[in-house]
Amino acid sequence: MGFDFTGKRVLVAGGSRGIGRAIALGFAQAGAKVSACARGADGLAALQAEGVAHVKPTDLADAGQVAAWVAEAAATLGGVDVLVNNASGFGMGDSEEGWKKGLDVDVMATVRASHAALPHLRAAKGCIVNTTSISGLGPSVRTPAYAAVKALIINYTASQAAALAKDGIRVNAVAPGSIEFPGGTWEKRRAEDPALYNRILAGIPFGRLGEPEEVADVALFLASPLARWVTGQTIVVDGGQMLS
């Protein structure tokens, strides 16, 4: 059974490539009117050519640009039923730069987009889906800043869900494992750091890295009526990576 989002208005922050792109296209193919934003204008143009109704180049670390995107998208689509906060600054190391990227994009873009969309979500009794990571479920020596901000998103998802239930708004998150796609982090790691790539690959019981569409399907489920009694949850989508 496929998803049917006919007539729904969906905003995807960080939608130009990888998981965000798969989520935006998944909603569009299921009948939704979709707006996507990101810094990558070329990726956004390609999305629009594939059926995404509205795109806007946006620096998600910039509060004014986030608010402008949500306002323009809501006006263009006629409201907001679903907000997907997918953007990441990929701040990895334990450095000022790494922490700033994660806090500015992973955290504050999620907070700001949620605040800006809230009046529309209240009117529609809509829902929010946040993208976090399995990195947020435990400590990380290799990527401490990234793991910490993803843990924050897991906690914020639960806090949002508790606060917004009275408005009929559900909030959930997806926590992907290692996902590979053209131009993505793990494709680069395979070429530049094969030892790390192969170590991660060896820890996934199914013997491969995940695909963006496998995460998108779970995001669509969480936004659908099939998940109407699910809120405050973080769903791991990792092919068993955390089992090893």
Describe the structure.
The chain has 244 residues and is α/β, with parallel strands linked by helices. It has a single domain, classed as NAD(P)-binding Rossmann-like Domain (Rossmann fold, 3-Layer(aba) Sandwich), CATH 3.40.50.720. Helix content is 47%, strand content 14%. The protein has 8 helices and 7 strands, in the order βαβαβαβαβαβαααβ. It has a 7-stranded parallel sheet with strand order 3-2-1-4-5-6-7, with helices on both faces. α1 links the parallel β1 and β2. α3 runs parallel beside α4, α4 packs parallel to α5 and α6 packs across α7. It is globular. It starts with 8 loop residues before the first strand and ends in a 7-residue tail after the last strand.
Essential attributes:
7 strands; 244 residues; seven-stranded parallel sheet; alpha/beta; Rossmann fold
Question: Could you give the topology of this structure?
Answer:
Blueprint lengths: L8 E5 L4 H12 L3 E6 L2 H9 L4 E4 L5 H15 L4 E4 L10 H29 L2 E5 L12 H21 L5 E7 L8 H8 L1 H9 L9 H12 L10 E4 L7
Helix pairs in contact: 1-8, 3-4, 4-5, 6-7
Count of all domains:
1
| Unreliable stretches | none
> Whole-number radius of gyration?
17 Å
The percent range for helix content is 40-55%
Strand fraction equals 5-15%
Here the CATH topology equals Rossmann fold
> Describe the biggest sheet?
7 strands, parallel
CATH superfamily placement: NAD(P)-binding Rossmann-like Domain
Structural class: alpha/beta
Shape: globular
Name of the CATH architecture: 3-Layer(aba) Sandwich
Q: Please give the alpha-carbon distance between the first and last residues.
A: 32 Å
Q: Please give the number of β-strands.
A: 7
Count of helical stretches = 8
What's the CATH class, please?
Answer: Alpha Beta
Listing every helix as H and every strand as E from the N terminus to the C terminus, the arrangement reads EHEHEHEHEHEHHHE
Report mean pLDDT, rounded to a whole number: 97
